[in-house]
From TrEMBL:
<feature type="transmembrane region" description="Helical">
    <location>
        <begin position="26"/>
        <end position="44"/>
    </location>
</feature>
<dbReference type="Pfam" id="PF18919">
    <property type="entry name" value="DUF5670"/>
</dbReference>
<dbReference type="InterPro" id="IPR043727">
    <property type="entry name" value="Lmo0937-like"/>
</dbReference>
<protein>
    <submittedName>
        <fullName>Lmo0937 family membrane protein</fullName>
    </submittedName>
</protein>
<keyword id="KW-1133">Transmembrane helix</keyword>
<keyword id="KW-0812">Transmembrane</keyword>
<keyword id="KW-0472">Membrane</keyword>
Length: 45
């Protein structure tokens, strides 16, 4: 579940970069959250 959310956030971030549609730093915050989720998932194994 956590991994799925992280992947969705990464996809949204990439789409934000491709379309150049950014709401301030919101897209980059999504990237940071996704990376943190993946790291927590990997460390928690």
């Amino acid at each position: 579940m956590l991994y799925t959310i992280a992947v969705v956030l990464l996809i949204l971030w990439v789409l934000g970069l491709v379309t150049s549609y950014t709401i301030g730093g919101f897209i980059h915050i999504l990237l940071v959250v996704a990376i943190v989720m993946v790291l927590v998932r990997l460390i928690g194994r």
